[in-house]
Amino acid sequence: MDGQLGYLFAGFAVFWAGLFVYLLLLQARIRTLSREVERLEDRLEEAEATGTPPRTGAGR
Fold first, then answer.
1. For 22, what's the count of Cα atoms within 13 Å in the CB-facing half-sphere?
2. What is the share, in percent, of the chain residues with pLDDT greater than 70?
């Protein structure tokens, strides 16, 4: 019975470690996307202030 509890504990430990790593990666991705949205908003405000239409397409 003790051996089975060891496997159960190991399974829970692996699950929580994986969840923690996933959440860290998700947080980093959200931070990157937030910076990108902020940058795009700045570009849009600049384009509106100068009266030029914002560039479209994949160019950066």
1. 6
2. 88
Number of domains in the chain: 1
- Nearest-5° angle of CA 16, CA 20, CA 24? 170
Structural domain contains residue 60? no
The 10s digit of each residue's pLDDT in 25-36 is 999 999 999 999
Q: Could you tell me if residue 40 is inside a domain?
A: yes
Quote the domain boundaries for residue 46.
Answer: 19-50
Q: Is the pTM of this model over 0.70?
A: no
**CB-based contacts of 51, cutoff 8 Å, min separation 6:** none
